[in-house]
Structure formats: C-alpha cells, structure tokens
Amino acid sequence: MTKLNFEFQDSVISTNNVLKSDRSAQEGSVLIAGEQTQGKGMGSNQWESRKDENITGSIVLEPIFLEPSQAFLISMAVSCGLIEFLSKFEIEAKIKWPNDIYIDNKKIAGILIENEFTSRQINKTIVGIGFNVNQEVFEHAPNPTSLKILTNHEHPVKMLAEKLFEMVINSYELLRVNKKVIMERYHNHLLGLNQYLLFDDENSKFAGKIKSVAEDGQILIIDESRKEHKYYFKEVEMLL
C-alpha cells in the first residue's frame, strides 16, 4: 500500500507544477494548497476556486506497471476514487467523460493528469484534483455545485482533503492488481452509458449513447442510426 505524505501550503501557482518541478517527490507525495493563483484544468482551462473553500491538490504516482497506451486507466481509477468519496455522503455522482465528476448535471470536481513516459512504461504521473467543498458562488464556472450546496452545511476542507486522497490511492492500488474491476466501476458510473444524450463533434450535433471507453481513453458512441463514432479527448463534447 502506497504511503501518503501530505504537505499543506497556503498559496502556490499550481500544485501540479510544484510537484512536477520537485524531482525528489516520490509516489504518495501529496500537496494541498489553500489557493492556486494559476490553477489548471483540462487543456487551457483554468480552475475556479476561492481561497481555503475547496480542495485543490495533487499527488505523485509512479505507475510503472502500466504501458503508455494504458495511461487512461489512471484517470479511470482516480475518477472511481472520487465517486467512492462522495458515496460516503450518500451522494450519487456520475463521471462525465473523460474524468469530470457530476451530480445532477452539475460539476463538483475535475481532474488534471500529466504523465512522464518512456517508450515502454509510465514513469511518473501527477494527478491534480479540484473538488468544490464550501464555495457557493462561482463567477465563471458554467454549471458548478459543491458539497456545501448539496448538504446545506460547511465541511472541514483539510480533513476532507486527506480522506479524498486516501480514497484515490485505494482505487489506484486496486488498479495495480485488477485493471478489469476499475474499468467495470468506471463504466458503471459513466454518464450517458447506454443512454441517448446530445453530442457535438466537428461536423454536427447528434444524439447518441456511449457504449464503452477504452484503456487509451477513446470513447465509442452509437448514434440513432446505429452508426459507430470513435473519439479522443476534445474531439467530441457531451451537451448537458
């Protein structure tokens, strides 16, 4: 079992960036910040979070047991860990492909994963997690929610951060020994699985249902005419 080593800082540019630049950081190193001045989301997106109100942190993993083509399994495992964390509050959440966590079509958490590869294995992974805890007012996020909004009371952010990353590492350890179970859990909580929703690719908007997500993150969608569509991240958008 990977031992977690927590470090808490008041303010950093980005927890992912700090851990990436710290070559001494080993598997299980966790950095939690009260504030990220340039918190990152997927692609060029920025993560909106008020100081000390939410969980903003990153963890170092060393998934040398995975081939580069299996990198998305890390995303699956982390997503499942967040789903398990929310279940402790009796909250049923869904995973919006590739790895956003949604509750009733509102986003409560996001994941940013950055890998260092060789040709044969993944040497190091930085997993950044933004999880809305006590923030109630958002200026730019399009459809957010938070634990406080859902439960009507505040929560201790630091303690929850430790519990959240414990759930994440538990899911990661399961991935180490049983990839199939992680894939099954991911699909069981996948928003739009075998359910018609609206999608938008570079050609048009269309109704389709997700059939599967592969180890490399490629999504398979079947449209209403039963035609198969395969996409990687940023090639298609689910419209909620």
Question: Would you give an account of this structure?
Answer:
The chain is α+β, with helices and mostly antiparallel strands. It has two domains: 5-188, BirA Bifunctional Protein, domain 2, CATH 3.30.930; 197-239, Roll (SH3 type barrels), CATH 2.30.30. The protein is built from five helices and twelve strands. Strands 1-2-3-7-6-5-4 form a seven-stranded mixed β-sheet, sandwiched between helices. The chain has a five-stranded antiparallel β-sheet with strand order 11-10-9-8-12, with no helix packed on it. A hairpin with a 3-residue loop joins strand 4 and strand 5 (100-103). Helix 2 packs across helix 4 and helix 4 (157-177) crosses helix 5. The longest helix has 21 residues, at 157-177. The model has no long low-confidence stretch (mean pLDDT 95).
Keywords for this structure?
240 residues; alpha+beta; BirA Bifunctional Protein, domain 2; SH3 type barrels; 2 domains; seven-stranded mixed β-sheet; five-stranded antiparallel β-sheet; 5 helices; 12 strands
Main beta-sheet strand count, sense and barrel state = 7 strands, mixed
Q: What structural category do the secondary elements indicate?
A: alpha+beta
Stretches with pLDDT under 50, minimum 5 residues: none
And the CATH topology of the largest domain? BirA Bifunctional Protein, domain 2
User: What name goes with the CATH superfamily of the largest domain?
Assistant: Bira Bifunctional Protein, Domain 2
Helix content: 10-25%
The end-to-end span amounts to: 38 Å
CATH architecture of the largest domain: 2-Layer Sandwich
- Work out the count of structural domains: 2
Measured by DSSP, the beta-strand proportion falls in 25-35%
Q: Provide the succession of SSEs.
A: EHEEHEEEEHHHEEEEE
Question: How many DSSP-defined strands?
Answer: 12
Strand order of the largest sheet: 1-2-3-7-6-5-4
Count of individual helical segments:
5
Rg over CA atoms, rounded to whole Å, is 17 Å
Q: On the 0-100 scale, what is the average pLDDT?
A: 95
